[in-house]
Amino acid sequence: MSTCTVADLPAPPSEWWTDRERAREIAGRLNVANAELVDLVTRVTASKSWFGDGIRSVEHWLMLNAGLSPAHAREVVRVAARRQELPTAAALQRSGQLSLDQADALAKHAPADHEQSAAQSAAKMTVPQIHQVMGRYVFDVSHTRPEHRSAWERADNPPEVQMVNEAGRFHLRFDAPLDVGALVRQAILEAKDALFQAGQPHAGQADGLVEMATRSLRVGRDAKASGTPVQTESRQKNWRIYVHLSTDGAWLTGGQMLPDHLLRKITCDGVLQPVWETDGVPVNVGRAQRIVPDRTRRLIVDRDRGCRYPGCPIGVVPYLEVHHLDHWLDGGHTDMHRMLCLCPHHHDRHHAGDYTMTGTPTRHDGVRFTGASRREIRLARPKVATTNSSPPGPRYSGSIGEDIDHSFFTINRNRGPSP
How many whole angstroms separate alpha carbon 195 and alpha carbon 204? Predict the structure, then answer.
């Protein structure tokens, strides 16, 4: 039986070494550039200079100004959020030795108390290896504070909820045993995930809670299984939210006066039950109606194919709202050529005064968005390089690529991994 030794293997072509070195040189410059972007996002987040003109988040700001995908933008923001806690990872990234994906994996797993050893180890691992290894450790860096000790004494108390209207905002506080809290948390996360799957990548846990409430109050269809409770139309009417309208303003039943911009948003495209009043006396209770007729709405949604705000990723029909350029409260007509689609966030921000819109919605580029600073909001045009030559820069040393020996690491609930 013949054997094969290393000496018998053919030598790799010369291009193999050249291409590998070239790839690592490019990766080194890319790592440094990504480090600069993370540092910029760290400053932008701290100063809140991203806010305004309808920008929904730092991620959206990156999508608009850097041309990033939602997933790539989330990576940058995650790393930026832990920049101060992970200084070794930041230094390695700035020197070109740690990629953005490696830094993002560290940001997800590494605690601040063990960041140096974790970052130095991660620089020699592939991204899947970082997730595999770091995800297996149980870091316990918490310390029992005196003010927290009494919490265990009320751990089995029944759930409590507080709901308060204050300064034009609704405040909700929920306190419950861990098992009940896990149930509520899982329901919120499920609703949040449903929004994500439906095309809302920036939906948070608060959005999941709103989705849960919307599902509960939505008119249900006949139950498929016997014994399943059905949300009937009569029950729906008992829990309908009424908007009271008068010459003095508008308010929800039993609630505070609605801000003008919120009233305009509600009457722009929403299901409502208006109660018209004169001198505090109801004179007419209108029927529940959608301000934009369903047929017109379908045509507008088909025409726009998503939120018209520049760079907004929302394009799923159930999560779009139709906005009147000439507002309904100001006598505007429900005409297709004067209406366009916006997502709930950008609809809210427009009525809050973050930006204005002018133009003709029937053309793809017919609407001009102008921020509060009077600057036009539009997608960034990337700068084109004028030369093909690449300046010298740091070289990425690369991951080892070998299998990770897990016995090389130790799990210590007090000290974390030790390379």
Answer: 9
